[in-house]
Structures are given as structure tokens and as C-alpha cells.
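Example 5.3 — TonB-dependent siderophore receptor
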Amino acid sequence: MSLSLCCKQFKPHPLVLAMAAIAVIISPLTSAETIPQQAEQNQSTHLSQNEDLTQLPTISVQASSQNVAHVGKQAQNIKDIPQSVTVMSRQRIDEQGLKTLDDVMQQTTGVTREQLWLNNNYSARGLKIENIRYDGGSASSLQDRSNSADLAQYESVEVLRGADGLFGAGEAGGVINLTSKRPKTETAINATISAGSWNNYRGEVDITGALTQDQNIQGRLVTVFQDQDFFYEPTHNRREMIYGALNFDLLPTTTLFTGISYQKDKTDAFNASLPRWEDGADMHLPRSTTMGAPWGWVERENISLFANLQHEINDDWKTQFNVRHNTGDDAINGAEMEGAVSYDTHQSQWWRYQDDTSFRETTLDLNLQGSFNLFEQKHDVILGIDHSNYKKDYKQNWTYYADGDAFDRVAPPEWAYPPATWETDNTNENNKSALYGSLKIHPIDELALILGGRYTFKDELTIDNHNKNIKNTYNEDKTFVPYYGLTYEFLPSTTAYASYAEIYKNQRNYLISADGPGLDPLTGRNIEFGLKHQINSNLLASIAYFNIKKEKEKVYNSWTSLPNSNSSCCYVGTGTMESKGVDIEFNGYITPEWNVSVGYTYNKNEKKDNTETPYNTYTPKNLLKIWTTYQLDQLIDGLDIGGGVVAQSKTYAVGSVRAFNPATQEFDGAWTSIELVQPNYAVWSARIAYDINPQLNIALNLNNIFDKTYYSTIGYPGYGNFYGEPRNFLLTLKASY
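Solution (predicted C-alpha cells):
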């Protein structure tokens, strides 16, 4: 499809006119004052014009933001962290037109995505990423609800790959940290409008500045409105987001950062996954196909309240307190077609799906950070305590309705909502509390030894089945998880590192037999060592080898009905696996005009049993992600170009189908296992941007340039197969004051 054909998907929208008016108004009001200033600045000024208003207009500050991460309790240079870390900066987010956390994860080094119809899963090194933190606070369990979080409220996204044993136990895939936009003392306004393929219209306004004459109180307000269709028809989504934050300089040594965010999404005719033929073969359905009822809908609403209080005790010591309260509600009413499709009859199955879910989560984190001198060397300490309480009430109906023709989909009539009864009506509550601490010792200036650990003294899961009137509580024993790290700058700007972290996860609600007991916790360890080299002040290269082992993981043994329990039965804790491989990353400015991000991961993960089969078949052995931009000021002042690629080797899923029976000439033979394969592929993207004047920038992004048809996720014969996006464009106009 040519670009001209692609652009036919664009239609005028009132939002464009409204937001364009803001851009036009702001630009002339500010240009007279700032153009003379721009003429006096060097070529680095151009770098800052397309960035978020919180960054200073110098190359060094801009580039260094890619090399500083908040994956712990404070900002750290990535070179000093003995694990693999990727920072997706505001500049990168804006350049690629990334709007949600899901968009960012698809571009992040070493991360793979398993698409689901409502929430998505992310993995690194073959292991699931389960934890997410906000501004370095306590680990949150909301990761599966956060992939649609709008990024307009965040300054950056940081991903640490590997076990996060010190600040949050769980799987060894890694942890995501979202860094919120902070208020500034200088007044600044950004207004952005965009329009793209499939009637994708969006407007953003970002305002910050001091609210009092003495500038001791600063505020920030970010609003988003988005209205869009999708390449699968007739799905449509409408989004509203507002973020407000205040920063109080209470004392010269004490600050309070607090705020609220609200996001609401209403999706009509939500997308359901695609089935395959009854023998597992690809049906080659059009990419515009969705198997959901056109009347189906999803409503999601999320509110977050947060505060961070920080007090500097003296030049060497400070304490900070983080609190966050998240609430949300889901309402879903729909029908979707699932089930492998018959060659003869084209029959699949319509299923009814309804959902009413509400949740709340409160996380608390209090820590003390500081340094002391001993033997003429400076050493660092972190001591803290954190707590999380997560409660979810969920009601669901999932029932078979009738068979239907997969090529002539006549949806069932719309169900009444809410229904008179719910098949599932449960309340789950999880309470976790832990102490953590680390000591970073410097025997010499170039060497740092890190000794730390996490002591979990409460890990409690309660499941309340309201239909059965059964309530069960599962408590895990108190557990200590150690963490060790080492960094050694053996050459100027070159650091060797190693780290060891243990893995721990509660499995008490998975029973060995109907009478119990529950399984022991999943355990394991994560080892990583590598090199990080600061090529120049703005360019960092790294290479890492990792080896992860898990033991005692639950393995399904047999199904047993437990009418008087909420536990799952029956399992054995015999699962073992190993994941090993290499991460290579290259981030920053090669020259003042040329910015590049290259990430490559090789991963081999397998079950350590007699089969030695892959543990996670969704993770490719080879994964390459590249993004680069270049300023062409010497050719045309204010012109930027960019491009990138996401390329990976094959992935597959294992499913079961009935073999063809020659006697009946039907696929009703014995069940047999098959592999559903997505071959290796590459998806290319490009960007061109131009500064109309110092306050106004226009950019065009083109994604999937060669219109590659591929499955972003391979599922099973009956469901779980999702196409990647066809070729599409996004046109963005940004005005800054």
C-alpha cells in the first residue's frame, strides 16, 4: 500500500481544529520574544526544541537523561548499576509517537509482548515482568492493568531486566518504573495535536509553573483527549486523561510532591483474538477482522493519588516517604467467537463474556539514604520498609452461547447488563510487608561492593468466594532474599560488574492434594555480569551475560474438584528452568547531531527436565531493536530525520488438535500436539520533523513502512492470535511556550 493510499484513512475531525487553534495562538505570541535568543544559541539548541519542557536546552543534559535511571530509591548513573537497565526518555517517547506503556514496551530492549484481548503480558529473558513502580516507590501488582496507561503524565520509563530481589520479590523478568512529570518554577506551556491512520485524533496540553510569588509552590497540569478507530473493524476507543501535580518547598531542606491522575477509556466493539483452522493452519483472515460482537463494549476508569515527602537531614543523609493509592473499575459486556474452525462447516463458537471488576491498592515506602566516611573512603547506605495492600472484587460470566459461521458472523443479541446472576463472584486481597537494606562499600575509589537483602515478614493472600460462601487465607513463611553486587572501574569510563539476586514467590494456594498442603515457594537465582563503557559524556555502551534458574515452580498434575476451598488442585512443585543469554545496548549521541539507540538480546530458555523444551516460546532467541535520529541543520535548518526497526527470530505456541481420521474423513481422530509458528520478521519505521519556527514543530511518523503482515502474538488453534499493525502514519504538531 502506498503512502497516498495509507493517507486516505485520514478524515478531518473537530479536535484537530480546536487544538490547532491553541498552537496557532501560542506561536505568534511567543516568537517575537524568543527568536533573538535562539539566534545566539549554538546548534545544541535545536535538540531541545522537540523535547519536554522539563529539560534544559543542552546536548549534555539531554543525552545524560538516557544514562540516568530511577530503578532504585534514587537516581543513579546506569554505569553504576550492576544490572541491565534501559531508559526510555521523554525525547524518545515523543520522537516515536509512543502514547501508552504498551507502545514503549514494544520498543524497549530485551522485552517481548504477549498480546491479550484486554491486558498484555511482558517478558524479559523468557520470564514475566510482574512488578511496576511509580517514582521509585513500593512495587505494585497492577502491571497487568497498566499497559494502557497514558504516557503524557510521565517523564520517562525505566526497565531493569533480571530479578529485582532488593526492592520487590517475584519473577526474574524485571521491573518497570514510571517517573512522573514534576512541576517547574518557570512557566511553560506545550500544546500537541496529532492525527493518524484509522481516524486517530489526539490532543495534549501540558502546563507548568510557579503558583506563588516566592515560587515555593509549583504546579503542573496535563490533559489528554483521544478519539480513535483501529485497523480491526469496527473497534473504537475514546480516552480522557487528566494529571495534576503540586510541588511544595516546605523548608529549604523539605519538599512535598503530590498529585492525582484520572484516566477513562470507553472501547466499543472491542477486539477479540483470531482462531485458526481445526488442524492449526493459518486462516489468512483479513487484518481488519475482529471476532467480537459489534455491540460489545469495555469501560475502564482509573484514579491514582500519590505523595512523596523528602527531607534532607544534612549534606549526606536524607529520608523520603512515598505513598500511592490506586483505584479502578472495569465493566465489560460482549460476545466473542472462539474455537478452531471446521473446514467443512466453517463453524466456531460464540461465547458470552461479562465482567464487573473493581480494585484498590495502597503502597507505602519509607526509607533512609545516606553516606559515611570510613578509612578515608565514602560508603553508601539505604534502609527502608515497604507495604502493599491490594484488593480486587471481580464478577464474571463466561458461557457458551451457540455455534456460528466464522466467515458470516451474526452476533448474538446484546445481553442485559448487569446480569441477574454472576457465575464468578470473588474478592481477592493480598498484603505484603518487608524490610530492605543495602550497604555499598568502596574499598578504593574504583571498586564498589554491594551487600543487601530483603526480609519479607508478611505475605498473605485471602480469597473470598461469595457464591460458595468460602473464605481461605494463605500465609507464607517469613523469608530473607539476599542481593550482592560489584562494580569495578578498571579503566577510565569502563566498568566491569557482577550481581547475584535470589528469586522468591508465594505458591501456598496451589495444593499438592485435596487435603493439602500448599506448595513451597518458588525459588531461584539470577546471576549477571558484564561491561559498561562511557564512550563519551553522552554515549553509553554495555554488554551483559545473564543466567537465571528457577526451582520448585508449580506444575499441573491432575484436576480435582474442591467444593469447600478456593485453592487450585492439584500441583507438584517440581518445575525447573534455566534462562541464559546476552544483552548488548548502545545509547546516546555519537555526534551532537546523531542520536542512536541499539538493543540486541540473545536468549535461550528451557525446562530442565527430560524434555529440555523451551520454557517460554513467545520469547525469540534473537531480538533487535533500533531507533536513531539525525539533525540536518547544515542542509535545512530545523530538519530532523529518524528511523528504526524491530526484528526478531521465530516464535511459536504449542497447541492441541484432533488428527485427520481417514475412516470418517473428518478431523476427529486422536489429540495431537502441534507448533503454531510465526517466522522471523522485521518491522521498519521512519520519521521526519521540521521546526517551523522556534515554538512550532511538525513531525510525520510512518510505521511498518513495508506493510509487513505478521502475527504480533501466536496463540492456539481456537484463540489468542493477533495481527501486528499494518502500515500507518501519525502527523503531529507541537507548540511550545
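Remark. The chain has a mean pLDDT of 87.
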